[in-house]
Fold these 3 entries.
Entry 1:
Amino acid sequence: MEAPSLDLGLGEEKTPPALDDGFVGLGEKEAGGSFQKAMHKAGVVLSSKPRTVHELRDRLLTAGFRPVVVARVVDRLQGLGLLDDLEFARAWIEERSRRKSLAGAALVNELIAKGIEPEIAEQAVEDAGLDEDAMARALATRLYPRVKGLPARAQVSRLQGALARRGFGLEAVEAGVRSVLPPEGWD
C-alpha cells in the first residue's frame, strides 16, 4: 500500500516517510546497515556474558548507534528470547545467593544497580524462594571460626554486622547468630 501524499499548501505534495520500520528520518539503506551492525555488536556483547536490557542499551549507545536503532535491536532480541531481564535476574540470584550468601534485599539492590526494574528484581527474588533463616544460619556457622577467640560481645557484634551487610533482616540475623553462639554470649 502506498503512503498517502500530503498537500502542504506550497504548490507541491510530499509523501511522508514510512513509520512502520522504526527508523523515522533514516534512509532505507542507512537504516538496514545500522540495524545489522548494531545486531552484530549486540551478538558480540551478549556472547561474552548475559546482560540486562539496560547494560546492552548502554553498550550500543556508547558504540555510537542511534537510540532508534538501539531500541529496535533491543526489541528484536527480546522478541527472540535472547534478552530477558527476568531470566537474567533469576540466574543472577541463583549464582549470588549461592556464592556470596546474599539475602533477598541485597540481591534486589544489586539487580536494580544493574538496571533491572525493581518489580522484576523483587519478582525474581520471590520466585527463588530463598530460605533466609537457613542461609543466615549457614553463613554464621561458616563465619564463627573467625570470631571464636573474641569476647562474647565482640562475637555477637561481628556476626550480626557480617549478616546485616549481606542483606539479612533482623530476625534472620538473630536466628543465625543464636544458632552458633552459646546462650551466655547474648547476656
Note: The CA atoms of residues 77 and 83 lie 5 Å apart.
Entry 2:
Amino acid sequence: MDIRLAKGANTPLPAPSCRVRLTSPGAEIDVCAVLLGADGKVRGDEDLVFFNHPVESGVELADDTITADLAAVPAPVERVAIVAALDAGAGGPASFDAGSTPGAAVECGGTRIVFEPPPLTGGETAALVVELYRRAGTWKVRAVGQGWATGLAGLATDFGVAVDDPGPAPTAAPAPTAAPAPAAALAPAQAPATRRTAPVPAAPAQARPTTPPAAAARHVVLTKSGTDVLSLRKDDPRVVVTATLQWDGGSTRRRQAGADLDLYALSVPRHLVTAGRQRPKATDLAVYYRRLGSLTGPPFLALDGDARAPGRETVSIARPDLQGYVLLCAYSAVENGVGSFRSYGAHVVVTDNCGSTVTVPLFSTRARAYWVAIAMVDFTTGEGVRIGHVEQYSGRDVEARPTLYSNGKFRMGTGPVEFKTDPAGG
C-alpha cells in the first residue's frame, strides 16, 4: 500500500523497523540522521549519524538510506530527523531548486510512504525532509520539507551538534605529499574511523555565499517586551532572514484536542514606511498559507507551506534593504477548541542564517484568543535588524486578524476575517 503525504502531514508507522530513502533527481546529496530529545537538541555529537559515524542507537546509514530499529531507539530520543545536504563537490547546483529538492520514501511493514516536498528555492543547501517521532507510545512519520540556507553545518548547529570549521580553502601551493592532511580536510574515505564531528561541506569555488560573513554566533531568548539585534548588512541582497513558528502541541491532551497553528507575516515595505508626523496607513500585505509570497519579487517574503499538525512553519525574508517592518503572528484554527497558544508550546525563532538566533517565547496562558502577535522584525533601525517581543492577543472569540500600520504600530482584531475551513475566505 502506498501513502502520499503533503507537507506537515503525518501517519503512523505500522512496524517497528523502517527504511527511509532520500533522493534528489537533479543533484548529488549526502544523507544523515539526527537523534533529538524533547528539547529538540542532540544528547551529544554522537547523535549525528553520517558517513563517518553510520550507526547510533538503533539508527543506521547506508548510502542514501536510513534504517531505523525503532524498538532500539533509547527513550530520551523523541525524534529522528532525516536530512539531505547538497554534495558540493559533485558539480551540481549551488543550492536546491525545483529540479533538485530532495524527497523521501519510507518503507515500513509492507507500507510505502512517499513525500515530495514543495520546491526549495530560497538558497537552501540542506533540508530536513521527514522525521520519525514518538507520539503516545507509538512512532509516526511527519513530512517536514524545511530547508537551511546555512547548509548541513547550520542545521547541525541548530540541533546542538558541535561542528568542525575547515576554514578557508588554501590558496598557496599544495602541501608536500608526505605531510598528513588535517582531519577536517580529509575526504570521507580517508577520515579516521573514530571521528564523530559533523562534516562541513565545502562550497563550490564559483559559488557566492548565501549570506555574508557575520560576527560570532549568538543565541538569545527574549524576555517580556525585550528586544535584540541581529547584526547584518542590509544592503547585501544575498542576506535572507528566516523566522520559524514552532510548536509541539504542548501535551497529549492538547494534541488530541487539535493543534493546527498558522504563521502569518504582515509586512510594510521600506518605501511605504512613515515616520514622525506623517499619518500612518494600514497595510494589507500578508504572507500565510493562502498567499505563500515570493523571494524573487515583492513582497520578498515566502512561507514554506502549511503544517496542519504540531511542527513548524517558516517564512524567509529576502532583500532586507527593501523591508520596513514584519509582524509575526499566529492563528489558531477554530477546530482546535479552547486553549492558550502557550499550551501548544508555540514560540518563534528568528535567525540571520549565519548561526545567530533570537527566540521569542510566549508568557501568557490566555485562552479563547484566535490570534497572537508574537514578534516585530524591524528593518528600519540602522544597527541591523531589531527583533522585539510584542505578545498581544485578539479579543475573546474575535476572528479578525491584526492590522499592521506603516509606522510599525499594530492593532489586534481590526483586519479581515478569514476562516481556514472556507476555501474562498471571507
Note: Confidence is low (pLDDT under 50) at residues 165-214.
Entry 3:
Amino acid sequence: MALLKRKLFGSPEERIAVLEKMFDMSIDPIGSMDTMVIALGCAIFAITGAFIAAAWVKHSYRPIRAKNLPLTTVLYVSGILWFVGDLPMNGHVLLKGAFSQCKFWNIWVRVLFCFIYTSVLSIRCYALDRVFNQNKPTRGLAYYLPSIFFIGGYILYSIVTTALPGRMTIGYAEALELCTTTEVYVIVTLCLLWFNWAIIIVMMIRLRNIQSTFNEFYEFL
C-alpha cells in the first residue's frame, strides 16, 4: 500500500499502460468521449428539468397532482446526483483534487442517491398499492414507516461505511489516481440495491391491473 501513496508514473500514458496490465483490460484515456457522456447526461437532465418545472407551474391540474409531483421531483434530483457520483467512479473525470475523495463520491453521492432513487420508486408503488389493492389511505404512521425505514436505513449504512477504514470499503490509491473497493463492500451494496429492486418488481406485479388512469406499469418499466 505504501507504493500507492507516491507518484509512480512519468506520464498519463505510462499510468494507463500499468492499469491495463493490472486489470487485463483496455483502458481509454479521458477525452472527448467522456465529455460527450457528460454533455449528453446534462442535456437529458436539463430537458427533464424543464418538464418538471412546467409541471410545477401547472401543479393544480388534477392528472399532474395524481402523479405525486413532490416525489417525482425527489426522484429527479436523486437521478442527477446519482449521475454526478457516477462520473468520477466510472473514470469520466480525473481523480484529482476534490474528485479524489472516493468515499464521498461513492458512498454519499453515487450509492446513497442510487438507494434513494430506487426507494422513491418503492414508495410510489407502495402508495398506489395501499390505495388500489389495500383500500387504505396514504397517510398515517403505517404509510410513512416504510419510507422512514428505507431512507433511514440507507443513511445509516452510508455513515457506517464512511466510518470504516478504506481497506474495508473504499479508498484512494494516489499513485494510480484510482478508487479502490473491496469485494465485500461491493457485494453488500449490490445486495441492498437489489433488495429494493425486488420490492419494486413485486409491487409492479401487484399493480399491473389497477385502474388504467393511475396505472404506471409501463412508466416503471
Note: The longest strand covers residues 170-173.
